[in-house]
Design brief:
Layout: H1 25-30, H2 69-79, H3 81-99, H4 103-139
Helix pairs in contact: 2-3, 2-4, 3-4
Length: 140
């Protein structure tokens, strides 16, 4: 029974032709396997293999302390200009110290920014209340 296909000349019946294995880069250049490295050490000397090391990182993530910039700006504009400006300066100092890694200095500047801003806010509120009382008394 014929299938109508012609057989190729290099086809064998049950014989399977595999492609030859690719030579390594060294074999293709030189023609043989590279020599194996087998070091010999002088008497009394031994080879020391490096041991695996464990590295422990103690870095802890630290958040920037609150700089109270919004409070200092509010105090500067609406309440007490001198203490608000000092609060703004301390607020900027918090950011700069934290950026350079001075965490303790940033926390100290944060406390000072809060103190000056709250002092300016209290002085501004007291001044506003006194102004309102003075206006009411003067009008009466």
């Amino acid at each position: 029974m014929s299938t109508g296909y012609k057989t190729f000349q290099d086809e064998g019946g049950d014989q399977v032709n595999h492609p030859p294995t690719q030579p390594t880069r060294y074999q293709s250049a030189v023609g043989h396997d590279p020599p194996r490295y087998n070091p010999t050490y002088p008497p009394g000397h031994t080879a020391v293999a490096p041991q695996p090391q464990t590295i422990i990182s103690t870095y802890t993530a630290v958040c920037q302390p609150n700089d109270y910039f919004g409070l200092a700006l509010f105090v500067t504009i609406l309440c007490c200009l001198p203490l608000g400006v000092v609060g703004l300066i301390k607020s900027n100092d918090v950011r700069n110290r934290f950026r350079f890694g001075d965490i303790a200095g940033a926390e100290q500047a944060s406390r000072e920014a809060k103190t000056f801003s709250l002092a300016g806010l209290i002085i501004g509120i007291v001044a506003l209340v006194l102004a309102i009382i003075g206006t009411i008394i003067a009008a009466a």
